[in-house]
Amino acid sequence: MKRSRTNSWAKELDDLIRAFSGAFLFGTPLLWTMEMWWIGTFVELWKLLIFLVLAFAVNVHLTYFAGFKEQRTFHASLTQAVEAVAVGVVTSVIVLLVLNRISLGDPLDTVLGKVAIQAIPLSIGASAANALLAMRNNGGEGGDEEPEPDSPWRAVLNDLGATIAGGIFIGFSIAPTAEIPTLAAELGYWHEIALVGLSLLVTYAIVFESDFSPQRREKGTRGLFQRPITETVMAYFVSLFVALVALYLFDQFEIGDPIFSVVSQVLVLGLPTAVGGAAGGGGGWVKSAGVR
Q1: Structural domain span for residue 101
Q2: What is the pTM of this model?
């Protein structure tokens, strides 16, 4: 009975991590959108309630067909929808605090507005986590044929290429925006440390705790970096490099600019590129789309 209870809690934790991963994958671009911060600051209460009701209805529908758990009953969908909204709220609070968009001294209505507005797309990402993270890889179709294991170096190159592609996919849509220098200019030292920690945590969660391509890890050759700590760190540093290149190409900084300003911008964009890079390097939607 004790083992069964332990397994149950472990599965619940995996489901929640998958939900948070889906929230980041779907909602990251909107977290870096200035208009979303403004709407959250000035939105009227009745409009905010309508947003939340509509979001809950959409989440009920999504959890029935996708979700982040395996249950597919209407009652289970209601429960998952509530949990998805909670995941969206928690994720919104964490990211807005790290990005210095909210603080303990802000008016309560402003904080609630910003959190609620951002929680809507994040909760939808949590509800669609199984679809976004490709948790099920159709093992029943052609599952008898095991893939030939790659050599260690080929596995490393595959991961690098997919990580770069995933980072570009998300990062290049955010890099040209005015939000990057705005956020970077307002981050304190502790915010930057928290941003690095959050980026590493999200990278680890998406790569190793979201059931990305389990066949690759069970049957394929493990590359030199395909271990929890090394691959997480590698994916993050590659994502930071993608962020640096993107910011330079979009003229967000020039050679000779203060190094601290450049580093701050790279760290700000590093979280979105890390989310995309982790999804790509972990064997998710980028590899499914044909990146090898």
Answers
A1: 7-133
A2: 0.81
